[in-house]
Amino acid sequence: MIHNKMDSLSLMLDNRVKYIHSNGWTQTKDEMVNDFKTGKLMLSEVDIHESSARIIDHTAIVNYKGKFTGSMNATAFSLELYYTEVYVQELDKWMLVARHASKLL
Questions:
Q1: Strand partners, 77
Q2: What phi and psi, each to the nearest 5 degrees, are found at residue 9?
């Protein structure tokens, strides 16, 4: 997302993905890809402080803490977030099916 590689982003997102931002805003795959393509949402830096992953059968649950810097509608933001991503393995590929972020206080 930082390097604006929309083809790579699109390939890792499951068509059923639900992307929930720390402000409660939710997006589908098409909405998320479109917002990055149009520049509505831009990330300039992501600094991951902690991460862990668990695999259960064909599901991976990944937890991160990190700082996200970018802009939304040309308004700059810098957020410390804790977030969870859920991936499912389909054939030889891991697909993101859910992401939920919370602001760290």
A1: 70
A2: -60, -45
Q: How far apart are CA 79 and CA 68, in angstroms?
A: 5
Instruction: Of 36, 32, 11, give the one whose Cα is nearest residue 94.
Output: 11
Fold for the domain defined by 6-103: Nuclear Transport Factor 2; Chain: A, (3.10.450)
Alpha carbons 64 and 47: distance in angstroms, whole number: 10
**pLDDT tens per residue, the chain (105 residues)?**
444 555 567 888 999 999 999 999 999 999 988 988 888 988 899 999 999 999 999 999 999 999 999 999 999 999 999 999 999 998 889 999 999 999 997
Question: DSSP secondary structure string, 35-47?
Answer: HHHHTSEEEEEEE
- With CA atoms as reference, report the closest residue to 81 among 62, 97, 63, 95: 63
